[in-house]
Description:
Layout: H1 2-8, H2 11-21, H3 23-59, H4 67-79, H5 84-89, H6 94-110, H7 112-138, H8 143-175, H9 180-191, H10 197-200, H11 207-219, H12 222-229, H13 232-259
Amino acid sequence: MFCALVEAFEPEVLVMAMIRKHWKLAIIHLLLIVGGLVVLAGHLTTRQEQSAVAATESESPVAAIDPLTYSRVQKMREELCLTAEDLAALGCSGEQTSAILGSLLGWYRNSQALWEQLEDAQRVAQRQLDEAVTKINVGPKNETLIQSMPRLVESVESAAAARRQHMNLAMNDVSRSFNAEQGQLWSIAASNVKLPTRWRYVDGLSVDQVQTLQRAAYKGKLEEAEQQTLSASARLAMNGASSRHGSAIEGVLSAEASVLPIPPELGGSPTQPIE
């Protein structure tokens, strides 16, 4: 009798007795515990994955840019005098360069559909003109085709002007990153966009002066021609651009590599410093 009472009060016996009496409740508790462990394990796994992604992003802060976007933005930079050479000649800091390129890239992405439409229209107009010129040169003589030339030329010019007008909208955002002096120099460069960067920041160059300098450069007598052809103020402007370029180019290229990196598909190297 005594042994039976002792056995009845042993912990293992009591637990088993309670389980037999409340087996449903015990199963519910067990399921809750297992479910909680599963949720906790899932939460920990998710946190680890997020940490891994964050670590990867911190190691690679540069956002990927596809080759088409890169090529189009680079083309815009050339047409708007915003290449690395231009930004350095303007004396832009790395922070300014980042803001300018970020603004230009964002503007392109927001207006990509219209950009492609205008670009296609210009391409079609140019192709039609080229085909007409080829047919006229090869023959036979076609009066109708010859008479259509003014219209075809006008179509090319209109398409180019429409694309240029659209692209000029980006200049409003970009100009906010320049100070007053840089804005003035940028306007001079825009009027000389077809000139080499060396003379792009010289205001008021005539066609004759440019041709004289180009012939001298071809003959290897550029410095002598610049002394004879350019005024003192023009040479000062040219030397000022060269001096600013030398001081700013490193910061410009660094910012460019961060905001607008060359896609792996294209390879290549940054633009060369101004001579």
